[in-house]
């Protein structure tokens, strides 16, 4: 909270870790929350989440937050919202203002007082987030038709939204601070330039069964991998294979909440530190990871699958007519256990020799 | 700076002596210090060589042609039936010797190589998702491991980035590097390829022994060596490429890069996995087959247990999904039951080639004002309102960077603003490659509007449409999810 007056931005040196952008994906599946309500009602979870968000913002005045709802069949921004959807335009542009001030301070070294006034008892950015989030969430839940209630949630959509938002925010920051080198390719610059922002994604997950979104989820995981954005998972209920893989592949934190009632404790201890701080901590993360995949034909989660050697599509059983459903190649079914191709027979001998050596040595 | 001046003065008398040794570095030094202006002029003439004036007296036709060509190439590349199911073991050997500080490739051979190598790593793992890559550097007559064999592109890229702060120094040693590569590839499983790719800028190799014995050893371990030269053909490289690839013509295994573009092409050629036709011709092995693969889970034991692959006590590992033997690393073949074990995340790395995201359409002002979407669905940035002078206002609102990005973004290449105004009429009506006048791009599947940044990001990095992924009823519809289209390849092959 001391950071509010902007004085520590004045003394900021260039090697100070960049501010972090926390993108929270809240799984709002009504079914799952209804099941959870005896231990952790949605309202309590939101209250905990708001405390966590406030703590994140209090860490550094330039820190930012975005909250995205992953609803049963759609994903939506809960915060920030575009200007015209909220009552006044101040809501939407508030975080922008906050940051612009910081940039100015860094530039001319003249600490300006952030424009916050009305309520002395409630820090204005906190209140903005609270009202925006609650309004948006209420609208979202009200406008959910009963027909769209499914046990699943559109995590892929929410992740994609989170990524486009992170991308845009990073771009807008790197132009204002002009810290990125203009020489490299765009993608290369995005990958190698020192980040103006430390983005990360936190998913509060309550529902399972994501096999239908296998490919889009995997796409987002690789995008996160390329951009080194960790995906943190707070698994409150349900069971999903792919979120575990997401956090493992992006070096995020995966915590399965044994006691959902203590959500705030988990959030504060496990998910508050950003990438810079995590270097100095031992993050509590899952050790075992389930790397099963979903088949393309029935979206079934499998641990042994049949893979087309041309396009790498996964099938739970040999496809009909031995034709790959994805690329249309005629496949030879002769040897299921077939090895992934290539290279001569001569080497069989070599292998035996090597094996023999290996056994002798050990 | 003072140092280099001194050096220049002192070295004048030594220049002839050095010229007799094979060093090209001396030339580079003198040019950099004393004859900067001449060096620059030489660069200019060189770039002109590639540019041909079009009939209208501008070079835009050439630029367009290059962009078109790149685009077509990409399309072609994506539809060739590649064997992505191949496990390759590739060791990249980087020449980090003094010869790499030459500036005949801009900015220097060294920096360009580092930049291209980064792109190469990304591309390699996209094309060969279950393969392994390692990087070896050679300088000062020594070889050293820059990045050990692994399947994680990020590790390699991070290791390459570390080189940026270092300077190329000394002379390379092909023999040391090759010996090191041979040792690294020694344990590669038998059903995989063993490849070495050398980026060689020098005209000499300073070796401790007879390199021909090393070449013979490579041949007997079935390691193939490809070389990309940056200076000129070197006899030993020719021998090396010929002897390790007896069945391939030299033009495919040893090439000297003519310019930056050619260098990149040569490097990217090495990322392409062998095509199906190629493997058929190579000796009637398995053509396209269905492979049975296991997706094991990672476990961590409380106490060390022996792994099935090396019989070493380890705590972490992967359990074979068929017989539950523990192996240390993936991809591998289960030593007990022979099942190929891989990480599903590795397979999934190439799926966006199968389901590419459909291109988004430019939105004209009429369409834009008829819709009530006022901000980008992906990032919540407000779209520009319909202005008086459409193009200028839009530019301002999106900042200078967007323009640069668009110019670089080849798939929607629009080289100059002036050209746009000339072709305005035709582009507005046809507008396949154009830039949207309203700053909006529409996904035709979900009908949402996006800004240019989200468009580029969605198509180049994430390969998902944010709108389609959060559409009512999306999860129930099976086929056309994600606005992605199945590759037309399927029909092409059936027909
Ligand atoms: Zn299936
Ligand atoms: Zn296939
Ligand atoms: Zn082992
Ligand atoms: Zn096994
Ligand atoms: Zn956008
Ligand atoms: Zn769409």
From TrEMBL, chain A:
Keywords: DNA damage, DNA repair, Metal-binding, Nucleus, Transcription, Transcription regulation, Zinc, Zinc-finger. One of its GO terms (molecular function) is zinc ion binding. It is found in: Nucleus. The keyword Flavoprotein does not apply. The keyword Amino-acid biosynthesis does not apply. Component of the 7-subunit TFIIH core complex composed of XPB/SSL2, XPD/RAD3, SSL1, TFB1, TFB2, TFB4 and TFB5, which is active in NER. The core complex associates with the 3-subunit CTD-kinase module TFIIK composed of CCL1, KIN28 and TFB3 to form the 10-subunit holoenzyme (holo-TFIIH) active in transcription. Belongs to the TFB4 family. Component of the general transcription and DNA repair factor IIH (TFIIH) core complex, which is involved in general and transcription-coupled nucleotide excision repair (NER) of damaged DNA and, when complexed to TFIIK, in RNA transcription by RNA polymerase II. In NER, TFIIH acts by opening DNA around the lesion to allow the excision of the damaged oligonucleotide and its replacement by a new DNA fragment. In transcription, TFIIH has an essential role in transcription initiation. This is General transcription and DNA repair factor IIH subunit TFB4. It comes from Cladonia borealis.
Automatic annotation (TrEMBL), chain B:
Keywords: DNA damage, DNA repair, Metal-binding, Nucleus, Transcription, Transcription regulation, Zinc, Zinc-finger. GO terms for cellular component: transcription factor TFIIH core complex; transcription factor TFIIH holo complex. Its main location: nucleus. Residues 89-270 form the VWFA domain. Residues 1-17 have a biased composition (Acidic residues). PROSITE patterns: VWFA, ZINC_FINGER_C2H2_1, ZINC_FINGER_C2H2_2. One of its GO terms (biological process) is nucleotide-excision repair. Residues 23-35 have a biased composition (Low complexity). Residues 441-463 form the C2H2-type domain. Gene3D superfamilies: von Willebrand factor, type A domain (3.40.50.410), Zinc/RING finger domain, C3HC4 (zinc finger) (3.30.40.10). PANTHER family: GENERAL TRANSCRIPTION FACTOR IIH SUBUNIT 2, GENERAL TRANSCRIPTION FACTOR IIH SUBUNIT 2-RELATED. Component of the general transcription and DNA repair factor IIH (TFIIH) core complex, which is involved in general and transcription-coupled nucleotide excision repair (NER) of damaged DNA and, when complexed to TFIIK, in RNA transcription by RNA polymerase II. This is General transcription and DNA repair factor IIH.
